[in-house]
Amino acid sequence: MGRNRAVIVISLVIALAAAAAARVESLADAPPDVLVSRQLSEALNIRAGDSLRLSPDASGANARDFRVAGVYEPVADPMRINALKHEVRLHLPDLIGMTADAADPLSAEAVDAINVSLANPSEAQAFARDVAARIPGIVARPARGASGETRTFVVLERFHLAIAVVTIAASTIFLLALSVMLVDERRETVGLLRLIGLTTRRILAQVLLEGLLIAAAGSLFGLGLAVASQGVINSYFQWHYDTALVFVRITPDVALRCVGLAVPLGALASVAASWVLLRRDLLSLARR
Questions:
Q1: Alpha-carbon gap, residue 199 to 277, rounded angstroms
Q2: Pairing of β 64-72 and β 51-54
Q3: 43-69 pLDDT, tens digit each
Q4: Are 77 and 152 in contact (CB under 8 A)?
Q5: In the predicted model, what is the mean pLDDT of the chain?
Q6: 182: part of which helix (H) or strand (E)?
Q7: Domain locations in the chain?
Q8: Are strands 33-37 and 51-54 parallel, antiparallel or unpaired?
Q9: Deepest of 62, 141, 178, 219, by most Cβ within 10 A of its Cβ?
Q10: Can you tell me the distance from the alpha carbon of 70 to that of 48, in angstroms, rounded to the nearest whole number?
């Protein structure tokens, strides 16, 4: 009985080993996996599990078989917003095997660029200097604010800041002129308030409170409109450029900055317009 049981166990072990060997052999013969971008998947109707033949040559020479393991969404890149996102991601050994030059042994060992993510981004400049000093011939520079493509976004940021400053200055002047006209229409009311004994300080305090309330209501309305429209704007441009890039995002920091600018400017415009009116003679204010 014990001998039969040992024979059965040995047979099971042999069967499992044979199955494992067959599975390993089938995996070794299976084509390597790749990922395709969503845009390429939609353009060529490629799905996970399909087979592809990829070649580094435009003529299709020396093509190799691959299996599509999945579909991914490319990282949103503003510098490539108009470019076609028809991309394929390969494992590094497979990519080297396709692109390496057999006549150049170093072609499989050379890289053009390496991106390094630091735990403390503020040390990027010091890290770049240290790498450049330790490895002769290596050009190391921080990605943020460096020359090249990233420099374009620094220039754009400054351009947007200049536009914002000009817009705020122009809107403040327009708001002041509008406040002067509105206050001038209330000249008789202000004159009556002065006649019944209200001081200039009391009237200015009332105007300041009124200006704060109106500016706060206007800023909240503007934020509500921006929040309601950002989804529509993002949906349209993401559809137009076929990208996951977010074009408009109303963050708490942006909202606080807008309120912090709009409310004081609106209140100061109301006070400045009222101060010009209150400096007039009392009889000129009260006359009809």
A1: 13
A2: antiparallel
A3: 888 888 888 888 887 777 778 889 998
A4: no
A5: 76
A6: helix 149-185
A7: 31-109, 152-286
A8: unpaired
A9: 219
A10: 5
